[in-house]
Amino acid sequence: MACNQAFEMDEGAALPQKEKGAIQPQLDAEAPPPPPPSPPPEEKAEDALTSELLYTVDDVPPWYMCILLGLQHYLTMVGATITIPFILTPLMCIDDNDPARGKLVSTIIFVSGIVTLLQATFGVRLPIIQGGTFSFLVPTIAILVTSFEACDALPLANMTTTEREEVWQVRMREIQGAIAVSAIFQVLVGFTGIIGILLTWITPLAIAPTVALVGLSLFEVAADKAAQHWGISFMTMALLILFSQYLRNVAVPIPAYSKDKGISKSSVYIFKLFPVLLAILISWGFCGILTASGVFPEANKARTDLTTDLLKNSPWFRIPYPGQWGAPTVSVAGVFGMLAGVLASMIESVGDYYACARLAGAPPPPTHAVNRGIGIEGIGCILAGVWGTGNGTTSYSENIGAIGVTKVGSRRVVQYGAVIMIIVGMLGKFCALFVTIPEPVVGGVFCVMFAMISAVGLSSLQFVDLNSSRNLFVLGFSLFFGLALPKWIESNPGVINTGDAIADQLLTVLLQTSMFVGGFLGFLLDNTVPGTPKERGLLQWRATKEGGDADAVSHTYDFPFGMDVVRKIKWMKYVPLSPTFTGFVRKRSS
């Protein structure tokens, strides 16, 4: 198994098991088989990306390794996740020291764990973390501003505790209803196979700007956090680069025990496995020392004691439950406005699926897997609305970037990470403890992660002819305008004025989403500007998607159980969620 690349006994064989598996058939055969034909350059490039993976998507590391790697995924996502409640609470009239703030943090982490477990087990079945998304913030803020009185105009100081709770809970219930109802659209798009039909026109020149802009569009988020203290951010980046690149092949000897050999020495590639975890813990601990010694001035963002009030006010144990803020309320304007966030989230997630598959050593996701992934994300948004996180759910790009850095693409690791999120979401003080990770540390990690995502998006260009001026135009314009237009929309709020508030909100959210603008332009131009299939890279792209080891593709994206029954039922091939799905249109025989 792949785990031998991470653990190698000194007295054991020199080759990892993956390599042993590759040469064993030649040793056992009576005559060596003829050498395989040389793969085309495109296949070599793809193999180079995943050849150093310690664990691929279907590998199962030891349980103790899964716990540590799952914790690493949690630490990678928690910074962006807790940012969302911190942005929303002032708009909902929640004071910084109000225990409700900690309850919202616990709720969003708890629900993120549930949805991640559903996605990795029954959805797209790739190692993708699910969490809150900034795509829902714009419509959420619009609903709060237009539907409710400003918090400054309310006499909060003269209100009782119950009255103050009702002030923010009535706002939360309106957001809950808008998210839950609008997410039904996402469920239908996924489970009916509509999103899969659109994949027919998805090409490398549509995927490249979409995925690349997932990382590039977040540069401001990473830079803003890193700028809180560039010294700490540079330290975190340096550690992360040192561990993941320079020390990745350095093995650390540790003692091991087995019944057969007794005490022996094992080599653990700890820097390759845990670069993110090590970088965060070292930088976090360093910030704690400087905070205790008084080096950082008061209110400096690198301090670890900025959220101690939240830590004190958080309960030791609390289970978030559906309807904890009351029954959600629904308004037409709120639902249609939130629909923009749903659309932007879907577009981003499709790009994330392809990026995650590349980095995790998985075949490109087939149509049925994408259908299930989008459908499960819709269910996740419904759950988020029912539980009252104040937000929806989407794929987390930073955790996909973590796969590229750590070289660990195991689905089981993410499932363990999901369980960790569920447990932490119930342990209020433990959850609040991780909120003390300084923003500059998170910013340093994001700078590396988002850069990895951008590079993975551009790697899809290996299939196209980059000597073609037609392809260069499609790529360059999609990337440039995908950054320019959203930035202009963001800098000019209210510039879109169609006369209909719902249409204005929908267009504003979509045009402010770089992945949508760049992906739509790449999709439109590549499918309308004349070009040969070879020039556009469609021949190699289709061969990669449809060719190769069909059994491996089927196994990776199969249901976790019940596949024998599914394969026996003939009509299941017409169900968009089934791993045996062949499409709605029967192919004509030649």
Q: What are the SSEs and their pairings?
A:
Blueprint: E1 7-9, H1 17-28, H2 41-50, H3 63-91, H4 99-122, E2 130-131, H5 137-147, H6 161-191, H7 194-198, H8 204-216, H9 219-226, H10 230-246, E3 252-258, E4 262-268, H11 270-273, H12 275-292, H13 308-313, H14 332-359, H15 367-387, E5 394-395, H16 397-406, H17 411-426, H18 428-434, H19 439-459, H20 469-491, H21 501-511, H22 514-528, H23 533-536, H24 538-546, H25 550-556, H26 563-568
Antiparallel strand pairs: 1-4, 2-5, 3-4
Helix pairs in contact: 3-4, 3-17, 4-15, 4-17, 5-14, 6-14, 6-15, 8-14, 8-19, 8-20, 8-22, 9-19, 10-12, 10-19, 14-15, 14-16, 14-21, 16-19, 20-22
Provide an overview of this structure.
This protein is globular. It is mainly α and 590 residues long. Helix 4 (99-122) packs antiparallel against helix 15 (367-387). The chain is built from 26 helices and 5 strands. Strand 3 (252-258) and strand 4 form a beta hairpin. Residues 1-32 and 38-46 have low confidence and may be disordered. A 3-stranded antiparallel beta sheet has the order 1-4-3, with no helix packed on it.
N-C termini distance: 42 Å
Radius of gyration: 25 Å
> What is the count of DSSP helices, taking H or I runs of 4+ residues?
26
Give the number of domains: 1
What are the low-pLDDT stretches, counting only 5+ consecutive residues below 50?
A: 1-32, 38-46
Q: How much helical structure, as a percent, in the residues?
A: 55-70%
